[in-house]
Amino acid sequence: MKPIEIAKGIYDVGVNDWNIRDFHGHSTSMGTSYNAFLIMDSKIALIDTVKKNFSDDLIENISQIVDPKKIDVVISNHTEMDHSGALVQVMHQVGEDTPLFCSKMGQKNLDLHYHQPWNYHAVENGETLSLGRHTLSFIETRMLHWPDSMFTYLQDEKILFSSDAFGQHYAGLEKFDDRMTDDIMPHAKKYFANILLPYAPLITKLAEEITSMGLEISMICPDHGVIWRKDPGKIIDAYVRWSHQESIRKAVIIYDTMWHSTEKMANAVANGLNAENVSVYPMHARKWDRSDIMTEILDAQAVVVGSPTLNNGLFPTLSDFLTYMKGLKPKNKIGAAFGSYGWSGESVKLINQELAAMKFDLIDAGVRVQYVPDEKAIAACFELGKKIGQAMK
Ligand code: FEO
Prior knowledge:
The protein is of the alpha/beta class. Helix content is 34%, strand content 24%. The protein contains twelve helices and 24 strands. Helix 5 (185-196) packs across helix 9 (290-297) and helix 6 (200-213) packs across helix 7.
């Protein structure tokens, strides 16, 4: 990827990671990008870096604009290694004494990662830095995505460098939203559902703070994916909606099956939901990546989980998924369980315990079927689906 001038004298010098398909456990069907930004002014600033194995590409991109040695300030908005991994090489090229701006937690976390005696400048929330023509201000955004996260705002151009927030795992040569269709939104939604959802209350608060600050935004430059310049309000509105966990008349059925009994039950529950005009997403836990399932759950009103009983417990894919979902703290969901068993039959009880721990509204004790469901059992699953549909708004 060549440097792209995103505004006069401001460049994206980041890289595309075209072929990554597993980003620390998330499926990334379209790869991702690590965006980094160079601001040319009386003082030259670099905002964020890239993953370590792309260090040479970043240096090459910077070199197409300016000798890296001429960079006066390096800014780290976020310590996670997809954005700081190239810092060791960058600081070596730029000069080890170059001021490294970050949040207070950023200094702590960068030190814990890289153990280098860098010339840190830990900024206060709202602190500004003049580069000459441009002035930057720093906005603390703890837990979006790590305790160290911050935004950098370019005041005159009204450009927000937002780190992980508003990003998407998407590699492409189209770097702007106006070069894309709405097809980019599912990638943004997946990013939110799997990375930022636990911090939804903080996002709501941050959105209110930014509104009260009267911060005008002409462009949002996240560290992953496309830049929002055509309509930055669109992704901000989506974040407000997602962080409020607004849901639609939709149910996700996550299940696994050993001899197709729990699968037959899943299909009957789906038919019952469909009879109540609910959009239904049956998702086999071994066929779908957990990050794709979570993306569908974000705006679903109901989450229905089906597991066979295996060795007195849950089928492992459901244990995995329930653990994953619990960590992401989805809210305002109706929950229900079903499952087949041979002799002991603990799965429904175990699912209910997990859903209750997530504060889901359990509207039924669930349906258990021994071995293979007969007509009566299928009818009970259909009725469960209907009952869930009737409980929805
Ligand atoms: Fe893209 Fe939290 O790093």
